[in-house]
Amino acid sequence: MKTPLLLPVALVAYLLLTISATNPKAYSVGDIAKDFSLKSVNGDTVSLSDYKDAKGVIVIFTCNHCPFAQLYEQRIIDLHRMFAPQGFPVVAINPNSPLIVPEDSFEKMQERARLKHYPFAYLFDEHQTVYPQFGATRTPHVFVLDENRVVRYIGAIDNNAEAPSTTTQRWVENAVNALIRGEKPNPETTKSVGCTVKKAPSKGE
User: What is the pTM of this model?
Assistant: First the structure.
């Protein structure tokens, strides 16, 4: 019988897709995102305030190693190419500790950005202070901000990680298009799907 073989696979999938407990201090839709400054793979320091002339910002917490992040990588590139000319650039942030996942080190980030020709800013949350403010729990996890840096959408990129050609709900794309039209995104939140953020161990652990 095939059922026993499917059980471990189903369990792994469930563990990957289940969302972590929400940080009560994290952003909700309607909150204003605070400014931050993080190191870019180009060696520059990039701040949210650098995008003061943008109509909004698509902040995506992602990384190198996560299979879900890799599945969405081209779609993240496409989102930037689609919306940056319309005033909504992508800002990608790696929240993971390289102490837990060496593949997500700053040097590996630089390699990945060069290999894939990232057209957007790819930043390193080295001290892991920014992702808790946003409440990012997964990679990828998206926060769409409007021109006043008000959080207008939180969640997943779309509803099909593995087969983009059969995606039926392009949530981020729809949210940004709604803001461009001066409308409210619908839905405003969805469940983020991906690997959990890898937090560095506390001192003494």
Answer: 0.88
